[in-house]
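tool_call predict_complex ligand=magnesium ion
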Amino acid sequence: MELIHQGKVRDVYADRGDLILVASNRVSVYDVILPTEIPGKGALLTALSLWWFERLADIVPNHVISADDVPTEFAGRAVRVKRLDMVKVEAVVRGYLTGSVLNDYRATGTVNGVALPAGLEDGSKLPEPVYTPTTKADVGEHDAPETYEQTAARLGPDLASRVRDLTLDVYRRGAEIALDKGIIIADTKLEFGLDEDGVLTLADEVLTSDSSRFWDAKGWKPGQTQPSFDKQFVRDWARSTGWKPDDAEAPEIPADIVEATRARYIEAYELLTGRRWQ
Ligand code: ATP
Ligand code: MG
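tool_result ok
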């Protein structure tokens, strides 16, 4: 198979006109790949994505062709998917206020051009989920936030509005299912593409602990760092070492942090799907 793209986390191969997306055990924080892998992470994220794609299929078609028809060496962490013409936007939606948009909110009261009520804290629930798209940057660049109007100017209003509406629908459905199982999906990022018939199709991974913030609903309290099942844990550890995303070399993750991160990914998978991880 021909390796056509190596992302931060996934390797993408072309095969018989399709793509094979192979999820590695790599972990990236602030768009930097760390030198230490998290065992099982690729398989966990692949299984969770597949589980979600099924549960969202009545809202939006997805790119999955088969999870079985993949080279045996990648079994469990690879999916055969339709090769799509990717829509050049990272479709981010937020049900809660945290992370990269907090500074903008504090400075301007808006995120991506959308005005929010005053007095929100880190972790506050938003009155309505808010669509906060970013550009899809080239390798090595950072995605930049944009207003919905800017996305619409780039993609055309028809495509931009369909992406936004589907993103909000997927988030609402996903957040409701997850909350029922004790997990708050604070925010997530979706990617879409157009298939050969021009059908807007959900691609990439969906509602995983890499593409989303998963919080423990029991421990959620605005104004603090939320207990989470995602890589916030790795981000916080990386920051605590004094490392900055612009530094040349990222630090090795110590064994206890690797194990705790793996445990969080497993817990999210088990809580959401009701299945045992093995
Ligand atoms: P980047 O693309 O900037 O490297 P990334 O590091 O997040 O982003 P990965 O998630 O590791 O990339 O790799 C997956 C890549 O495959 C992404 O570029 C994604 O847009 C692309 N992709 C996912 N599904 C499809 C599809 N069905 N057709 C074409 N490309 C896809
Ligand atoms: Mg990605």
